[in-house]
Design a protein that fits this description.
The structure is a homodimer. By secondary structure, chain A is α/β, with parallel strands linked by helices. Chain A has three domains: 20-72, Orthogonal Bundle (434 Repressor (Amino-terminal Domain)); 77-172 and 311-337, 3-Layer(aba) Sandwich (Rossmann fold), CATH 3.40.50.2300; 174-309, Rossmann fold. Chain A has 13 helices and 14 strands. In chain A, the strands form four sheets. In chain A, strands 4-3-5-6-7-13 form a six-stranded parallel sheet, with helices on both faces. Chain A has a four-stranded parallel sheet with strand order 9-8-10-11, with helices on both faces. In chain A, strands 1-2 form a two-stranded antiparallel ribbon. In chain A, α5 (88-103) links the parallel β3 (77-83) and β4. In chain A, α1 crosses α2, α9 packs parallel to α10 and α11 (238-255) crosses α12 (266-278). The first copy, chain A, is elongated. The first copy, chain A, starts with 8 loop residues before the first strand and ends in a 5-residue tail after the last strand. Chain A binds chain B through residues 62-67, 69-70, 75, 77, 84-88, 90-91, 94-95, 98, 102, 107, 109-112, 114, 121, 125-129, 131, 237-239, 270, 274, 277-278, 296-297, 300-301, and chain B through 62-67, 69-70, 75, 77, 84-88, 90-91, 94-95, 98, 102, 107, 109-112, 114, 121, 125-129, 131, 237-239, 270, 274, 277-278, 296-297, 300-301. The structure holds a DNA duplex.
DNA sequence: TTGTACGCGTTATCAA
DNA sequence: TTGATAACGCGTACAA
C-alpha cells in the first residue's frame, strides 16, 4: 500500500478523493451548506453558493453515490435491464436512455438479461441493480410477474419497448406497425405471405412485440377482405432465417408470382432479399418484401420497412422515470410511439 | 408515503429491508460477529456461525452494497466496459465473466462504450463505473491511454480480449489464430485471398485484434514461401461485407479458380459463402473459405473456422481481477488463449 | 441563512 | 472467540 495521507495535497496532487468535508473546509463553510448547494436547496445565499461551487471545482470534488444512498437520499443511479444486446435496436435505445439520464445527472448501469435466472438475481436481492434509484426494464412482458408480485419493485420502474398496466411505459405501437404493413401490402399485386419471429417458450419472460405486429397485419388484411396465403415462423438467427426464406419462396414460386412477403423483422427481410436474388428473381416485381425495424443497412439495400423512433422511445422512458424520481405519484402513464412506413424499392 | 415501521414485522411481512442489526438481534450476537460471518472470517466458532446463518436465512437478509462500500472500501461490484454488444462474442464473454464473479459473490454492471466520449465519462468522475471495486475493459487497446495517464485506474483493472503490458490481461492469441489459418491455407490448391476488418480511425480507441490475425496469417504464408494474391478490407456491417465478397470473387474468378479466402471474421465468411452460392460455384472445391470466430451458425453452414474459447477467456479475466481484489500485488499477468482450427466442409 | 450533530448500514479496531 | 464502538461520506433535522 502506498502512503495514504488523510489531509489534502501531496506534490500538488490530491492523493485521496476529496470529501464533502474537504470542500467545506476549502470554502470556509459547514458541510451542511455544501450539501445544500449539491442538492439545489433554495435556502443558500448566492455568494455562499458561488464560494462553494468554486471550492468544488478547485478540488474536483464529486459526491460519493454510495454515501448518498446510505444517508437515506438518492444515489443518482439508474439500472437498465436489457435482453441480450445483439441488435442495433438496443444500441439506439440505450442512446436515448443515456442521453436523457445524463442530462438529469443520473448515472446508468446496464444489466444484461442473458437468461431468466438473471432477472430474479438482479431483482431479488442485494444487487446494485436493485439498489438503484430507478429501474428501466426493456422489451420483456412482465405484466404477470407484477401481478403475481414476483416482481416487487420498491423503486420507480418504467418499461420500455413493453407494456404493463401497472407501471409507466414507453413503447412502440407494434399493432399499428403491423397494420401499416398490412394496409400497404393489400395494395400490391399477388399473394400475401408473412414471416414471424418465434417468441420464447417461457410465458413470464416473453415479449409481445411480434404477436402485436401479427395482430395488426392480419387485422388490416381482414379489413380489406384479404388473407395470407401462408404464415411462417423463424427464430432470430441468421441460419434459421435463411432456411425460412427458402421455404417461403419455394411455396410462393409453386403457387405463382408475383407475391408480397411481410417479414416482421428486418433481419428476416434481409434473408429473403438474399434468397430472392439467389433465385434470379426480381425484388420489387416478382417478390415484394416489407421489413420491420429500418436497420442501418435497410436504406442501401432498398428495403421497404417500418421505421421506429427508438431513441425517442428511450428518451421518453427516461423522462417518465425522472418525473417519478422527482416525486410524481400519479397513475401509470403509457407513451405510445408510432412507426413510420418507409417505402423503398423492395415493395 | 406508506408507514415506515422501524421495527421488524407487520402481518408476517418485513416492511423494511433487514439490516445487520436485525440479524444480530435475531441471532443473539453482536453485529461484529455477523459481519465476520458475512466476510468468512476465520475467528468464528462453528456453532455461532450456524446460528448467524440461520438468522440471515430467516430474515432473508442481504448486505447493503452501498454501506459496505462506505465502511470497508469494498462494494462487491465490478464494472465491465464493453464495446457495443452486437455480436455473439460479447454475450459469451459476459457469460464467462459473470459466472466467475458470481461464484465470488461479486455483482457486475455493464457500461457499453457506445463512443469514445463515454469512456472518459465513465472513468473520469464520480460514476458508478468508477466506484466499483474493479474494472474489466474489453477489446480496446488502451495501452497508450495508460501510458499517457489519461486512464488513471485507481482500482484493479483487467483487460480482456486486449493486451497492455502494464495491467493484467486475458486474451486470444490472434497472431496464432492467423498463423493457423495461414498454415492450413497453404496446403490448399489455388490462389490465396484475405479479407480484413477495418479498425477504427481513433488510435487510442482501436483494437489490435485484426492486425494480429493479419500478421499471423501473412507470417505463415511467408514461412511457406507463399503470398496472398490480394487483400481486402471491409467494415463490420453486413452490407459492406456483401460488397466486399463480390469484389473478392470478381477478382478471384478473373484470375482463375480454385482459390482460398481467409475471412478474418465469420461474418465476412458468411457473406462470402452467400456470394459463392449465388454465383453457382462450389464451396470447398471452387472456392474454399476459412473464417474466424466459430459463430453458432458456423457448424450448420459447414464453415471451416477458428474456434475461440471465449467463455474461458472471460472466466480467467475475472479470476485475475479477483486475485487482485484479494490483495495480490505482483506484476501484471497475461493469460493467452489459443484458438483451435475447426475444419468443416468450406475448406 | 448557516453550522452542528445525528443517523444511515456496514467494516474494522480494540478490549474483554 | 466475541461484543462494543469508532469510523466511512453524506443528508438533514434542529438550533442558532
Amino acid at each position: 500500500m502506498e502512503p495514504f495521507p488523510r489531509s489534502g495535497y501531496a506534490g500538488g496532487q490530491i492523493m485521496r478523493k476529496p470529501t464533502i468535508q474537504d470542500v467545506a473546509r476549502q470554502a470556509g463553510v459547514g458541510v451542511g451548506t455544501v450539501s445544500r448547494v449539491l442538492n439545489n436547496h433554495v435556502a443558500v445565499k448566492g455568494a455562499t453558493r458561488e464560494t462553494v461551487l468554486k471550492a468544488i471545482a478547485d478540488l474536483d470534488y464529486t459526491p460519493n453515490p454510495h454515501a448518498r444512498r446510505i444517508a437515506g437520499g438518492k444515489s443518482y443511479t439508474i439500472s437498465v435491464l436489457l435482453p441480450v444486446l445483439t441488435t442495433e435496436f438496443y444500441v439506439r435505445l440505450l442512446d436515448g436512455l443515456e442521453t436523457a439520464f445524463q442530462e438529469a445527472r443520473y448515472d446508468v448501469a446496464i444489466f444484461p438479461l442473458l437468461d431468466r435466472s438473471r432477472l430474479e438475481r438482479y431483482l431479488g436481492s442485494h444487487t446494485l441493480a436493485y439498489q438503484a434509484d430507478g429501474l428501466v426494464m426493456a422489451t420483456y412482458n412482465l405484466t404477470k410477474m407484477f401481478h403475481e408480485r414476483r416482481l416487487r419493485t420498491q423503486q420507480p420502474t418504467v418499461l420500455v419497448d413493453a407494456y404493463a398496466d401497472s407501471v409507466d411505459s414507453s413503447f412502440m405501437d407494434n399493432v399499428a406497425g403491423g397494420r401499416m404493413a398490412g394496409e400497404y401490402a393489400v395494395t400490391l399485386p399477388g399473394a400475401l405471405y408473412a414471416v414471424w419471429v418465434e417468441t420464447e417458450l417461457d410465458q413470464l419472460f416473453t415479449t409481445r412485440v411480434f404477436e402485436d405486429r401479427r395482430n395488426g397485419f392480419l387485422g388490416a388484411l381482414q379489413a380489406a377482405g384479404r388473407a395470407v396465403a401462408a404464415e411462417y415462423t423463424s427464430s432470430f438467427d441468421s441460419l434459421t432465417a435463411r432456411n425460412t426464406a427458402c421455404t417461403v419462396l419455394d411455396q410462393a414460386q409453386a403457387a405463382g408470382l408475383p407475391c408480397t412477403v411481410f417479414a416482421s423483422a428486418d433481419m428476416l427481410a434481409g434473408a429473403l432479399l438474399d434468397e430472392v436474388r439467389l433465385r434470379g428473381l426480381q425484388i420489387g416485381t416478382d417478390v415484394r418484401v416489407i421489413g420491420f425495424d429500418d436497420q442501418p443497412w435497410a436504406e442501401s439495400r432498398g428495403l421497404t420497412t417500418l421505421h421506429q423512433p427508438v431513441e425517442s422511445m428511450g428518451y421518453e422512458a427516461a423522462q417518465l422515470l425522472l418525473t417519478r424520481l422527482n416525486g410524481y405519484k400519479g397513475p401509470a402513464r403509457a407513451r405510445r410511439f408510432e412507426p413510420r412506413l418507409v417505402v423503398r424499392g423492395s415493395a
